[in-house]
Amino acid sequence: MVLTAACAPLLAQTPLFTDGTVFGGSKVFSEGLNPLGNPARTPKATDGYYFTYLDGDQEAKDAESSIDNSSSTDPSTASSALVKLGNSPWALRTRAYGLVAIKQGTSLALTHEELTGILATPDLTPADLGNPGVANNTSLLDVRRANVTRLNVGGGSQAQQGMTLGGNMRIERWSMGEQRLSYNNPGPNFGSTSSTLLGFSGSSPDTYTYGIDLGMAMELAQGVRLGLTADQINAKRLWDVDLKPQARAGLQIDLGQWAMVTVESDLNSAERMPFPVKQQATAGSIRFSLNPSVVLLVGAEQRKIDDASVTRGGATLQIRTQSLLLSLGFQAGQDRPMKSATVGFF
Q: 10-residue block means of pLDDT along the chain (346 residues)?
């Protein structure tokens, strides 16, 4: 249970182009920029060129400080830190950037993501805590580094009145490295700080793969929309991770001319890189049109594995002129919060 609970936040979709639920956006009702979003929404995007960058850490409460304190030479401090890791066993560092060109409902995108995750499996046996027991503690840290470069081609078109269909093909180059650290080897601690572990750069030889995603969006009534996505419909196995199809459905309702609310959820659980653990998410967001040029998005996502779940929230501010889009996203509640920016030229 500890291992599966830890993986949940590590598998979240990267919110490229400030267009994800973690920043108050949506996958089903995306802005049409994110190549990992709903391809049926691409025709909604303004033709132009868009650049994105994001960086930051995500972690369970006090995870990094607990990893650091577990290296203490004081058995009491180290034992207390290991106990905290039982409730806060994960940390993730993410960096990504990319460029997408949108024209007449089609998109061509090149993106790169770097993910480093720490997963703790603490030994909480009473005999292996305190002095002198902690010297025999068998806690483990699984540190994984995954890099992926993606070339995406996709888009959508109107199939019939009120309905848009879309598809996306991804060609990907993956590399992944892993190191497992035992608490009592090389010594009575993990021997590394959390910041050192999150900077882990080992990787295996490159592996090339591809993915196909589908999407649909339609007007049920004026101001009411339904959307569906299915990603990785071509099942693949990448190292020890089974990439199987995952479906997601969403509903969007206009609240007058100034706001709209979106709710969406995965319909099944599926494994995603870099850990072989199934995940499933539910999210909600509100979009406020403050004036014709300024939009504020606020949202939250709950990601669940078995009986364990993690909730994250964030917001995005968009400023749009006739020739420029500037979008700034911020995730709340982290020591080193994830931040994202998108700049678009029309």
A: 37 75 90 93 95 87 84 89 85 91 96 89 92 89 90 90 92 90 73 81 82 95 96 89 93 95 94 79 95 95 69 92 95 78 96
Domain that holds residue 122: 2-345
The tokens for 286 are 């509100």
Is 189 strand, coil or helix?
Answer: strand
Q: Enter the tokens of residue 304.
A: 């669940």
We report the CATH number of the domain holding residue 157 as 2.40.160.40
Query: How many Å apart are CA 126 and CA 133, to the nearest integer?
Result: 8
Q: What's this model's pTM, rounded to 2 decimal places? A: 0.88
Q: Count up the domains in the chain and report the number.
A: 1
Distance separating alpha carbons of residues 12 and 130, to the nearest angstrom: 36
Q: 22: which 2 tokens?
A: 């973690």
| Count of all residues that appear for the chain in the document | 346
Task: Identify the bridge partners of residue 299 per DSSP, sorted by sequence position.
Answer: 285, 314
- Between the alpha carbon of residue 97 and those of residues 36, 166, 206, 228, 239, the distances in Å are 13, 24, 19, 26, 24
**196 membership: H or E segment, kind and range:** helix 194-198
Distance between CA 273 and CA 315 in Å, rounded? 25
Dihedral pair phi/psi, residue 207, rounded to 5°: -130, 135
How far is the CA of 105 from the CAs of 156, 188, 291, in angstroms? 6, 58, 26
Cβ neighbors of 196 (< 8 A, separation 6 or more) are none
The C-alpha atoms of residue 276 and residue 89 are separated, in whole angstroms, by 16
